[in-house]
Design goal:
The protein is an alpha/beta fold. 25% of the residues lie in helices and 15% in strands. The strands form four sheets. It has a ten-stranded mixed β-sheet, sandwiched between helices. A hairpin with a 2-residue loop joins strand 13 and strand 14. Helix 4 runs parallel beside helix 7.
Length: 563
C-alpha cells in the first residue's frame, strides 16, 4: 500500500493575529497580572542550557567525558529519558523562553524574516518570556550567555534580554562565535569586546557567579538563565583540557558508539531491545578513515569544551551551596538540540559573525582542514558528521531533523527540597515549552492573558512539577515539530516523522526508539489520523508550506496524490 502523503494536511500557513506590533524598549512592561500565591518558600531557579550537545555526551547519560558536576546534579536529582527540544538553536530557545511552539514565538526557522508571523526570526511581541513573567511576579532576573532571539546584525535592541525581562545580562546576541573573541559580546545593553585572558565558557560561568553574589543573598527569589555556547562549533578549547582527551578517541567513532551504547543500557538510559542505529553511510569504518590523528583531535577538543562547561557549572553549584540556598534552588540542565553534523567550509566565512583575525593580528584559518589541528584561537572548525553520529548514540540523524538524534535532549532536574528520591529516572515525556509552565507553577505565578495592552498567545507548555513530586503528570495529548520541512508528531508511544522531503515514517517509541523499523505500510490508518493532527497543528501555528523560496527540492509527499 502506498504511504500516506502530507499534502492534504499541510497548507500554506495562515497569518496568526493581525501582525506584529512595535515592541517597547521599556524593560518593565504592562501586564494583566495576578499576584503570586503567598509563600515564603518560592524556589530560586537556575536554568542551564548547553549548545549543540548530543544525547549521550555527558557522563550521567553514558559518556566518557569528565562531567563530575553534572553527574552530581543527576545523582541528587532526577533525569528524564524522553525530553525533547525543537531540533535547532533559536527555535528551541524561543520555545524555552516563552512556553510556546517556536512558530508561535516567531521562530519557525532562524533569524531570517520570511514574511509571516511564524517566520519573522525575531521574538514575537504576542508572547511573554519567562523573565518578564517571573520579574512581574517578584523574582529578580539575570542571564549569562547566548541569546539568539533577534537578528544580531540589527541596530535595534527591542528584543535584547533587558528588553525582554532580564535585569542583568552578559553574553552574545548572535548564535555562534569565537570562544576567544566573540563578536556581539554584550553587557546589559552595550556592546563590549573581550580582553585579557578571555575564554567565553569561563566568562559565562564567572558572570553567573557574580550575579549570584549580588542576587543570591537577597530577600527576593531569583531566576537565572545560563546559556553556554559549549560545545557548539568552532572547536575552541584550552590546552589543559584538550590534553586529557588526546588519546581517548584514537580508537575511532565505531568503538566509541559501541562503548557508549553499552554504558547507556547498563545505566538505564536506553533499553537493550533498542538496537544501535547504523553508522551514517557517509562515514567510513574507522579502520579506513583518512587523517586519523586530525579526526581524533576533533573529538578531543569537543570533549574538552564539554569538560570546561562542566567546570563552570561546578563553580555555579559551589556558589549556590556557599550562599546556603541549595535546598530550595531548582536547577534544570538541558541541550538545545542534538549533535551537529555540519562540516564547516571556507564558503561560510563571509556569512557568519566571525572575526577574520585573532585579537593579536593572526589570520584565522577557516574550515575543516585536516592539515590544521583545531583548538587554538586562529582556527575555526567543527567535529562534523562522524562524531555527531557518536554524540547522538544510539539515535539516527542530527540537529535540524525531527528524528530522535535531532530532538532528544538530556534533562536533569535538581531540587533537594522537592525531589526526595535522589538519582531517579523518569520515562515521562516532556518538551522545552514545559519549562516556562514549570517555572511559573513552582513560583506561584499565573501566566498573563495580556501584555503591553494586547492579548498574548495562550501557554502551550504544561508544568513538570508533578513529576518532581510524584513521578507522574497529565502530559500532552500530542507534541509536534517542524523545522526546515522536517516534521514529526508524537502521540503516546507513536511517532510520525519525516525528513524533508521524504514520506512519513511511523515508529513505536516503546519498542523501537532508535527508529529503525518503519511501520508505515502496516498501519496506514494511524498515519492518516496522526497526519491529520499534524495538519491541524501546522495550520494553527502558521507552518509554511514547503518548498519556500531558495529551496529547489520538490517534497516527495507532493509528488503524488493521496491514496
Amino acid at each position: 500500500m502506498a504511504r500516506i502523503s502530507r499534502r492534504t494536511f499541510i497548507r500554506r500557513g495562515v497569518e496568526a493575529g493581525a501582525g506584529l506590533l512595535g515592541a517597547s524598549l521599556a524593560p518593565a512592561a504592562m501586564f494583566s497580572f495576578t499576584p503570586p500565591k503567598p509563600s515564603t518558600h518560592r524556589p530560586n531557579i537556575i536554568l542551564i542550557m548547553a549548545d549543540d550537545m548530543g544525547f549521550s555526551d555527558i557522563g550521567c547519560y553514558g559518556s566518557e567525558v569528565d562531567t563530575p558536576n553534572l553527574n552530581r546534579l543527576a545523582a541528587g536529582g532526577m533525569r528524564f529519558r524522553q525530553f525533547y527540544n525543537c531540533a535547532r538553536c533559536c527555535p528551541t530557545r524561543a520555545s524555552l523562553m516563552t512556553g510556546l511552539y517556536p512558530h508561535q514565538a516567531g521562530f519557525g526557522l532562524m533569524t531570517d524574516d520570511l514574511g509571516t508571523p511564524a517566520y519573522r526570526g525575531d521574538l514575537s511581541d504576542r508572547c511573554v518570556t519567562i523573565a518578564e513573567a517571573m520579574r512581574q511576579g517578584g523574582y529578580r532576573t539575570m542571564m549569562c550567555g547566548k541569546w539568539h532571539l533577534t537578528p544580531a546584525d540589527s541596530d535595534s535592541r527591542h528584543n535584547w534580554p533587558l528588553q525582554r525581562g532580564f535585569e542583568k545580562y552578559f553574553g552574545t546576541i548572535a548564535g555562534a562565535c569565537s570562544y576567544y573573541d566573540p563578536i556581539t559580546l554584550t553587557r546589559d545593553n552595550s556592546r563590549i569586546r573581550a580582553d585579557g585572558d578571555f575564554y567565553y565558557t569561563d566568562a559565562v560561568a564567572e558572570n553567573a557567579v557574580q550575579y549570584l553574589d549580588s542576587f543570591g543573598p537577597g530577600e527576593s527569589p531569583f531566576f537565572m538563565y545560563v546559556a553556554f555556547t559549549a560545545p557548539h562549533w568552532p572547536l575552541h578549547a584550552l590546552d589543559g583540557e584538550i590534553s586529557k582527551y588526546l588519546d581517548r578517541y584514537r580508537g575511532g567513532w565505531d568503538a566509541l558508539r559501541e562503548e557508549r551504547h553499552k554504558r547507556m543500557i547498563e545505566m538505564g538510559v536506553v533499553e537493550e531491545r533498542w538496537a544501535l542505529s547504523p553508522r551514517d553511510p557517509r562515514v567510513s569504518p574507522w579502520p579506513l578513515a583518512p587523517y586519523k590523528d586530525w579526526e581524533s583531535v576533533r573529538m578531543a577538543v569537543y570533549a574538552a569544551q564539554i569538560d570546561r562547561m562542566d567546570q563552570g557549572i561546578g563553580r555555579i553549584m559551589q556558589k549556590v551551596k556557599s550562599l546556603g540556598i541549595e535546598e530550595n534552588t531548582l536547577i534544570l540542565f538541558l541541550s538545545d538540540n542534538g549533535g551537529n553534523y555540519e562540516e564547516i567550509t571556507r564558503a561560510w566565512r563571509d556569512v557568519l559573525f566571525i572575526p577574520h583575525m585573532t585579537r593579536n593580528g593572526r589570520l584565522v584559518k577557516w574550515g575543516n582542514d585536516p592539515l590544521v589541528m583545531p583548538g587554538p584561537d586562529d582556527t575555526y572548525e567543527s567535529y562534523g558528521i562522524p562524531w555527531a553520529n557518536a554524540s547522538n548514540t544510539p539515535f539516527r540523524r542530527y540537529k535540524h531533523y525531527a528524528h530522535e538524534g535531532g530532538i532528544a535532549t538530556p534533562l536533569i532536574a535538581h531540587w533537594p527540597a522537592v525531589i526526595s528520591k535522589a538519582d531517579s529516572w523518569t520515562r515521562q515525556v516532556g518538551h522545552v515549552m514545559d519549562v516556562m509552565a514549570t517555572c511559573l507553577d513552582v513560583a506561584g505565578i499565573e501566566y498573563p492573558k495580556t501584555y503591553r495592552r494586547q492579548e498574548i498567545t495562550p501557554l502551550e507548555g504544561k508544568t513538570l512539577a508533578p513529576i518532581f513530586r510524584t513521578g507522574e503528570r497529565e502530559g500532552h495529548d500530542a507534541i509536534f515539530w517542524e523545522h526546515e520541512g522536517n516534521s514529526a508528531v508524537r502521540q503516546g508511544k507513536w511517532k510520525l516523522v519525516s525528513q524533508y522531503p521524504d514520506y512519513w515514517e511511523l515508529h513505536d517509541m516503546e519498542a523501537d526508539r532508535t527508529e529503525l523499523h518503519d511501520l508505515a505500510a502496516q498501519d496506514p490508518e494511524r498515519i492518516k489520523q496522526m497526519a491529520a493532527l499534524y495538519g491541524e497543528w501546522a495550520k494553527r501555528v502558521g507552518v509554511r508550506q514547503w518548498p519556500i523560496e531558495g529551496r529547489s527540492e520538490v517534497p516527495k509527499y507532493l509528488e503524488r496524490s493521496d491514496p
